[in-house]
Fold this sequence. Notes:
Blueprint lengths: L2 E6 L8 H10 L8 E10 L2 E10 L7 H5 L5 E3 L5 E3 L9 H5 L6 E2 L5 E2 L5 H4 L6 H5 L5 E5 L6 H7 L3 E2 L11 E4 L1
Parallel strand pairs: 1-10
Antiparallel strand pairs: 1-8, 2-3, 4-5, 6-7, 9-10
The chain binds iron/sulfur cluster (2 copies).
The site of one iron/sulfur cluster has 13 residues, from α3.
Amino acid sequence: MRRVxxxxxxRCVGCEACVIACKNENRVPDDNYRDWVVQEVRGEYxxxxxxxxxxxCNHCTDAPCVTNCPTGASHHASDGxxxxxxxxCTGCRACIASxxxxxxxxxxxxxxxxxxxxxxxxxxGEPTACEAVCPTSAIVTGDADDPQSEVSKRLRxxxxxxxxxxxxxxxxVYYER
Length: 177
Ligand code: SF4
Ligand code: SF4
């Protein structure tokens, strides 16, 4: 199994329901976020387009946060996602410094936190909290190794991109224009 997330930016209206749902689901402290919404203008006048993206940890295949974690707290789970074992985390913040996406924050309880791709919900057969509330169904999470899954169909359409590919981390969150 290889869990990935796909986000259709042409559907995203920037309502930030995903951000609120994530904060509630994962009890994210005030002033911290596991996901956020970015608006980016592309092109030049008069041919300009606005891309609205719901961003989060990219669950990178070549994740510097995993490589630089001195305790093994940050690791790849069997489904390919990047997870944090809180019992091993010393709060040293090496992962925060090495993430090119600013996807992590220091939790007041002494460990580092970030998007877990709602693995607890996926394991129960439920969608991620952000996917569940998205009013335009822009977000779809699933198994890229299953050719029948919705994410596999989206990936086959071939029009997907990742944020800052030049960072070389091989993200597993894909955006569709
Ligand atoms: Fe690690 Fe950052 Fe990639 Fe997430 S986005 S896996 S925190 S390097
Ligand atoms: Fe690893 Fe925790 Fe240090 Fe991050 S803060 S590098 S997860 S021990």
